[in-house]
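Chapter review: from sequence to fold.
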Amino acid sequence: MKLKHTAAALALMAAFGAHAQDTVVKIGHSGPLSGSQAFSGKDNESGARLAVEELNAKPITVAGKKVKFELLSEDDQGDPKAGMAAAQKLIDKGVRFVVGPYNSGVAIPASRTYNDAGALIATVATNPKLTQQGYSGLYRVNASDTQLGSKMALYAAKELNFKTVAVIDDRTAFGQGVAEEFKKQAKAAGMNVVGHEFTNDKAFDFTAILTKLKTKKVEAIFFGGYAPQGAPMARQMKQLGINAKLLGGDTICTAEMGKLGGDAVGDNVLCSQGGAILDKASAGPAFKARFKARFKQDADVYAAAYYDATMMYAQAMQKANSIDPQKVQAVISAGSYQGVAGVYAFDAKGDMKQSPVTIFTFKGGQPSPLTSY
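The token string follows.
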């Protein structure tokens, strides 16, 4: 009897020992999990969570040990100060692989903290300044403002044949950046930019700005900002009888825009988003189905990019046969990763070598793709 107990105890110890030998890798996520942009932060977090769960269900092996992934998520509130605190928190918890931050205004200052700690960063933040800082472990897994703003301007000029447009930006790092890129390309494409107005990312009343632009008979207004401001802007344009199209970047390309804007958001709204049309990507429909089954809601703008970024880290660890961030970085920088939303291959700055942009409009409150180029 005693022997049986001893054998059982040894087997138990061996099992625990084997489990204890697993390598634990912490993936850090930073995004707005509270406040008006929480819908985006939670969607992004869910994309990363799905990847972590799938990796743990079929564990990968690195340097002879099974890898167990843990997702540690911090609410940066879309605020630079809170983002710096979130970065320090994640670093202190041993995180060396980060997905996020979502907002350019958070990602630019927080990236220094991550870089100083030797952590890798994969972010969808679009401001061109982000990758001009020279951090070798920073990757933009999405188009930049240069591509989002300029492709929207080209579409307005070439496909819609617009001649007179105006710009409004919310003065955030993202809003300002994407608006300037739109303006630059609009002028180059022969459109007349007859006004550039400013607001902030907490505003909800745009009547004064819109009334001013109405007198200029614009065919389109480009808004550099986020859906919680874009939706009331669309409503107020309708109330004021402004028939111009409302154009924007990826941050208004979301179901939240349709939800908040109601019947004021339809084919009058056009937006640009990095990546090809997910439904047409070979792994796109299957990803969308798995996401919906797991989280009981549709994947929004960047869930696939956050999923891809997490999987890209895992694949690079396998190729490097190491979880050392520097070795993983070398693999990512030199190679390419085929993800759900596209192929991730980076230039020396950390920008994607090729990032198609899709132009969307809205149907039944949902973003509906028109064309990719």
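Two observations follow directly from the output. The CA atoms of residues 320 and 328 lie 6 Å apart. The longest strand covers residues 65-75.
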